[in-house]
Amino acid sequence: MYEIIYKDIKSKKEYEAIIKKVLTQCFKEEKLENSKLNITIMLTTPTKIKEINQEFRNKNEATDVLSFPVFERDELKEKIKNQDFLHEDMLGDIVISVEQVEKQAIQYNHSFERELSYMIVHGFYHLMGYDHIKEEDKKEMRPKEEKILNTLKISRQ
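-> structure tokens emitted (157 positions)
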């Protein structure tokens, strides 16, 4: 279902427990628990995420999370509808700056768990083909993110 890669940071069981809990719920919510879809999650530094952002998006800035989906949204919908999971497939990659997650947790006055969980859910739904650039897209994506977090009782407090 997922693989965690640590790039220039130390591994922590806390991160792994949060990722497992959140991705398990994401897969359950989207009825993918019996799929052979895999996600790679890289936990890294602001410097590394900036390099990746520059290389793949031509943006010379650090960010909190990047997502790299393998499928177009319609293609993935069809695959899910037909339960076309005979072979292992990559859903995509999520890259998270742990230092940025820590800063944002403080900035938004909630827990590290809440902020990291949100980054995972947010990245997951980008891999599923959702976006938030246009307002109508945001209205579709945000409730899905909140439902996962609410189900897991991961609140903003």
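The two ends are 29 Å apart (CA to CA).
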